[in-house]
Design brief:
- The chain is an alpha/beta fold.
- The protein has 6 helices and 5 strands, in the order βαβαααβαβαβ.
- The protein has a 5-stranded parallel sheet.
- The two termini are 23 Å apart.
- The model has no long low-confidence stretch (mean pLDDT 83).
Length: 159
C-alpha cells in the first residue's frame, strides 16, 4: 500500500494529478492525502482560537467535495482513502513531521506548477516539497481540449 501526498489548491484542475498517480502505480492500493498549506496565524488570539473556528475549512468548496467523491467512486478498487488535510505553518521540520504522521511514501505534483492561492493565508508548498528529500513524481497533465466550452468537473472523467 502506497501513501501518496498531493498538494492541492482546492481547484478541480489540481485533482487531475490523481489520474496520473493511479496510472503511475498501476493498480497498487493507494492512500492519498490532498494537502493544502496555510500560514500560521500571526496574532495570539488567532492562535488560541485556531482549533475552534478553523476558518481555513471554509476554503473547501462544494465542487471540490463533489469532485473528490467522483474520484473515489471512479477508482474505488485502487484508492482506499482520499482525504484532505491542512499543513498549518511553514517550516521544514513541521512538513517532515506532517509527512511522517501520514506515513507518506511519495509526493506527486503536476509537472507544471499552476498553484493558485485559495485564501489569504494559503501558500505554495513547492519549496518545502523540493527540500524534503522525499521522492517526488511529477505528473504530466494532458492539456485540456479547448474545442468546446466544458465545465471544470468534466476534467475528472478525462484520462
Amino acid at each position: 500500500m502506497k501513501h501518496v501526498l498531493i498538494p492541492t489548491d482546492f481547484s478541480i484542475r489540481s485533482l487531475r494529478v490523481v489520474h496520473g498517480v493511479v496510472e503511475r502505480f498501476g493498480g497498487e492500493p493507494l492512500n492519498i492525502v490532498l494537502m493544502h498549506a496555510v500560514e500560521m496565524p500571526g496574532s495570539i488570539m488567532d492562535l488560541m482560537m485556531l482549533s475552534r473556528r478553523s476558518s481555513h475549512y471554509d476554503l473547501i468548496t462544494a465542487d471540490y467535495k463533489d469532485a473528490c467523491e467522483i474520484i473515489k467512486n471512479k477508482y474505488a478498487s485502487v484508492i482506499h482513502s482520499l482525504k484532505t488535510e491542512f499543513l498549518v505553518g511553514n517550516g521544514k521540520g513541521l512538513f517532515r513531521n506532517f509527512l511522517l504522521y501520514h506515513n507518506i511514501d511519495v509526493i506527486a505534483c503536476a509537472a507544471k506548477d499552476e498553484f493558485r492561492k485559495a485564501g489569504a493565508n494559503s501558500y505554495n508548498p513547492a519549496e518545502l516539497i523540493r527540500k524534503s528529500k522525499y521522492p517526488v513524481h511529477h505528473i504530466q497533465l494532458t492539456p485540456r481540449k479547448e474545442k468546446y466550452l466544458v465545465s471544470a468537473m468534466s476534467e475528472l472523467f478525462e484520462v
